[in-house]
């Protein structure tokens, strides 16, 4: 695996990649260089034939991520970058919009990754931590997790993805407004109750073990089937039923011709474990 400045990437099992946000001394808080590198990591893994499932976690014992590095943002953020370029409000607004769009695109790379992403959260998981985790396909947390949609506490509406994705993830709009308007902290059991996470484990190590168990299970299956299922589920979430059915038909008119179908069926008859070609 390639070496990165702000992320640790290794292969704990065949066809499984583990990505760790690696700035534990700052509670894995993000600044611009980090979210640009996050996109580089996930764009690379998305196209790697050696990867079929990805685990995303935070290094250290205290936090998945505390969110945006507010100190760095106050010194080198978009307002500072746009200062002095123009006194025209509209032109400043265009520059800020472009910055936000780039930021959104970097975080969305987790969602757009062709491979399923399992997000493991522990400790502090504020702000950007929710933006990132709502892009993941499966979410797991430890009992010590502290979630918060924190942006209103710094005078902003969350703008990198949580307000767009969280209502679709949990489907309980009253609860989404509750946590988003108040910025209150909530824990793993509440997250499990509303469907934000699939599992709550005793500690980070147990949560990572559960993620690896799931990732191994996904990596053993046909990559054509798994990646197709992710694509079709995401399309169904964002489109009308009729459009989704039509898209599924077109998608599978190609996918059904894969040799993986025959291999999977024969292995079921013979009670053997199928092996699938790299994709």
TrEMBL record:
<dbReference type="GO" id="GO:0051750">
    <property type="term" value="F:delta(3,5)-delta(2,4)-dienoyl-CoA isomerase activity"/>
</dbReference>
<keyword id="KW-0576">Peroxisome</keyword>
<dbReference type="GO" id="GO:0005777">
    <property type="term" value="C:peroxisome"/>
</dbReference>
<keyword id="KW-0007">Acetylation</keyword>
<keyword id="KW-0276">Fatty acid metabolism</keyword>
<dbReference type="InterPro" id="IPR029045">
    <property type="entry name" value="ClpP/crotonase-like_dom_sf"/>
</dbReference>
<dbReference type="GO" id="GO:0005739">
    <property type="term" value="C:mitochondrion"/>
</dbReference>
<protein>
    <submittedName>
        <fullName>ClpP/crotonase</fullName>
    </submittedName>
</protein>
<keyword id="KW-0413">Isomerase</keyword>
<keyword id="KW-0443">Lipid metabolism</keyword>
<dbReference type="InterPro" id="IPR045002">
    <property type="entry name" value="Ech1-like"/>
</dbReference>
<dbReference type="Pfam" id="PF00378">
    <property type="entry name" value="ECH_1"/>
</dbReference>
<dbReference type="InterPro" id="IPR014748">
    <property type="entry name" value="Enoyl-CoA_hydra_C"/>
</dbReference>
<comment type="pathway">
    <text>Lipid metabolism; fatty acid beta-oxidation.</text>
</comment>
<dbReference type="InterPro" id="IPR001753">
    <property type="entry name" value="Enoyl-CoA_hydra/iso"/>
</dbReference>
<comment type="similarity">
    <text>Belongs to the enoyl-CoA hydratase/isomerase family.</text>
</comment>
<dbReference type="GO" id="GO:0006635">
    <property type="term" value="P:fatty acid beta-oxidation"/>
</dbReference>
């Amino acid at each position: 695996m390639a070496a990165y400045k702000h992320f640790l990437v290794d292969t704990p099992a065949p066809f499984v990649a583990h990505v760790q946000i690696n700035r534990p001394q700052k509670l894995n808080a993000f600044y611009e260089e980090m979210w640009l590198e996050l996109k580089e990591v996930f764009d690379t893994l998305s196209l790697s034939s050696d990867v079929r499932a990805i685990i995303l976690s935070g290094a250290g014992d205290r936090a998945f991520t505390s969110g945006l590095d507010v100190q760095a943002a106050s010194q080198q953020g978009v307002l500072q970058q746009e200062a002095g370029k123009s006194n025209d409000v509209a032109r400043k607004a265009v520059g800020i919009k472009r910055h936000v769009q780039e930021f959104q695109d970097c975080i969305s790379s987790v969602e757009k990754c062709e491979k399923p992403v399992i997000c493991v959260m522990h400790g502090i998981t504020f702000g950007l931590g929710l933006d990132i985790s709502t892009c993941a396909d499966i979410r797991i947390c430890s009992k010590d997790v502290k979630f918060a949609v924190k942006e209103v506490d710094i005078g902003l509406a969350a703008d990198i993805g949580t307000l767009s994705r969280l209502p679709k993830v949990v489907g309980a709009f009253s609860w989404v407004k509750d946590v988003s308007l108040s910025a209150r902290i909530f824990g793993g059991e509440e997250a499990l109750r509303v469907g934000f996470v699939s599992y709550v484990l005793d500690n980070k190590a147990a949560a990572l073990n559960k993620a690896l168990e799931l990732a191994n299970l996904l990596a053993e299956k046909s990559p054509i089937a798994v990646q197709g299922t992710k694509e079709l589920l995401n399309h169904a979430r964002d489109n009308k039923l009729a459009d989704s059915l039509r898209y599924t038909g077109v998608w599978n008119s190609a996918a059904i011709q894969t040799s993986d179908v025959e291999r999977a069926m024969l292995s079921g008859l013979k009670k053997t474990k199928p092996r699938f070609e790299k994709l």
